[in-house]
Amino acid sequence: MSRRRTLGTKKKIALLVSAATVAGGGAFVMASTSNAAQAPKSAAESAVCQGLATALGNNQKFIADQRANPDAQSEARIANREAVVAEIKRKQEASGCVVGESAQDSQATQPGQSAQPAQPAQSAPAANPGGGAAASGQQVCNGSTVTLSGEGGAPAASSNQFPAGTKLKVTNLDNNKSTTVEVTSVSGSCVLLNNAAFEQVREPGKFLIRRAVIEKVG
Question: pLDDT class for 187, splitting at 50, 70, 90?
């Protein structure tokens, strides 16, 4: 009787250990699946993440250029752009993107897309947030994508091709919205819109305009 009871106890212990192992394995699988589901998205996986990565890359390039060729205002410009970089990283985290991933503004065609020439502005009857008929001008920066600089303030733009005071009209061909803004600072792209200007032409949830027409109107 004593031996039977001992064997019975051992069997019970073995069964309990086996059950715990299975349960632990199941918990591990569930935890792994949960972690995988919450893995941050890269720029290649999300248009939102791509737009933020491009904006981050543009600002980082601007900072690098200012450090390589400093002038009397470089320190102030760098401090301003570092604050912008921090804000973009916060947006990356909030949007479920890889924090710190950056990409320089590129004219390369996205995978699965064929190269398309920029369409003339008159082919897109765009709404003008300022009211009245939208002025037409010289089309520039053909094929450029447009994203945001992350800077606050009234609607404005920054550019590496046009001096301060230049007026640019940006049309988003995906929703036929446009805005005309003045260049107020230097950036690493043909045109970067600040937050207020980008809001006027963006599609909900997107931080990149792939099909844009940019015109110099003043």
Answer: confident
Query: Which residues, 6+ apart, have CB-to-CB distance to 147 below 8 Å?
Result: 51, 54, 55, 58, 105, 189, 192, 193, 198, 207, 208, 209
List the domain range (segments joined by +) for residue 117. Answer: 47-216
Q: Which helix (H) or strand (E) holds 65?
A: helix 47-68
How many Å apart are CA 22 and CA 148, to the nearest integer? 50
Q: How far apart are CA 156 and CA 153, in angstroms?
A: 8
Residue 5 domain flag: no
Q: In the predicted model, is pLDDT for residue 186 greater than 90?
A: no
DSSP conformation class of 139: E
Domain assignment present for residue 147? The answer is yes
Please state whether the predicted TM-score (pTM) of the whole model is above 0.70. Answer: no
Q: Among 168, 50, 41, 63, which Cα is nearest to 106's? A: 50
Our measurement of the distance from residue 211's CA atom to the centroid of its chain's CA atoms, rounded to an integer in Å, reads 15
155-180 pLDDT per residue, tens: 999 998 999 999 999 999 999 999 99
Residue with more model confidence, 62 or 28:
62
Burial of 108 (0-12, 13-18, 19+ CB in 10 A): exposed
